[in-house]
Specification:
single chain, alpha/beta, five-stranded parallel β-sheet, globular
């Protein structure tokens, strides 16, 4: 077989292993890619939210991205969005100098994040680092495997679309309103999702225990009365937990 035909066959083989995560699977081809194939289900299928305010925020993020100068992006749900309010002082202290962009949306699940990433929120930028905190809103109606698949799909989409960007994946934070079974699912999902971290492109930090009391309940100092979101002290604690790794990854590009 000619070299040209071999190359064509190899190209086809690679193309057919691209999955919904946007990444190449490990089969008979050796590639430096931590992403693996997952079954199609709701958590990995991109879909927008049907809320006018959600689309307004999405459009605002897209417009911000068009301006460029995004060295760090924070991707997630309301825990990320609230860096703009409850966590604003901490954000300004640590992340404003990085030209950080907040891509957190109240109520988002992984499928919503995937849609946003596919519709302009990372077009034309090359941040040094993307910090991902997602999965809490899958507290009911999803298996641990499905939640983990969704989290990994978000990471895969980022490293595929942003080849020069490192990913810092954070564990799902404790959710005080969750049943024992649901809390266990979220913990298992974080553990399973952490396996995507290859410590070359994707890095993982388990910070969940920092937000728990010794009796296993969520911290009253670090979480608000709803037992889901962070207080201002909670955001300072979160920053303290991630900043050594953030600094290292920002320097190591």
């Amino acid at each position: 077989m000619s070299n040209q035909r071999v190359l064509k066959s190899l190209t086809i083989a690679v193309m057919i292993t691209i999955t919904q995560t946007g990444c190449i699977t490990h089969r008979n081809l050796v590639v430096e890619n931590p992403c693996v194939e997952s079954k199609a289900h709701e958590a990995v299928t991109p879909v927008p939210r049907e809320r006018a305010a959600w689309m307004v925020r999405h459009n605002a993020v897209v417009e911000r991205i068009k301006q460029g100068k995004a060295d760090v992006i924070f991707v997630g749900n309301s825990l990320t969005q609230r860096w703009e309010s409850t966590g604003a002082d901490t954000w300004n202290k640590y992340y404003a100098a990085y030209n950080a962009v907040n891509m957190g949306f109240d109520g988002d699940k992984t499928q919503n994040v995937l849609w946003r990433l596919d519709h302009g929120e990372i077009d034309g930028i090359s941040p040094k680092l993307a910090i991902v905190l997602i999965g809490s809103n899958h507290v009911e109606g999803y298996s641990a495997e499905e939640i983990a698949d969704g989290i990994k799909a978000v990471c895969c989409r980022l490293i595929t679309r942003l080849p020069d960007t490192k990913i810092l994946l954070l564990s799902i934070l404790p959710r005080g309103t969750a049943t024992a079974a649901a809390a266990d699912r979220l913990n298992k999902a974080s553990e399973q999702a952490s396996k995507i971290a290859d410590r070359r492109r994707i890095f993982y930090l388990n910070i969940s225990k920092m937000f728990l009391e010794t009796d296993g309940t969520v911290s009253k100092d670090l979480m608000t009365a709803d037992r889901v979101h962070l207080t201002s002290k909670g955001y300072e604690t979160l920053a303290t937990a991630i900043n050594p790794t953030v600094s290292k990854l920002m320097r190591g590009r």
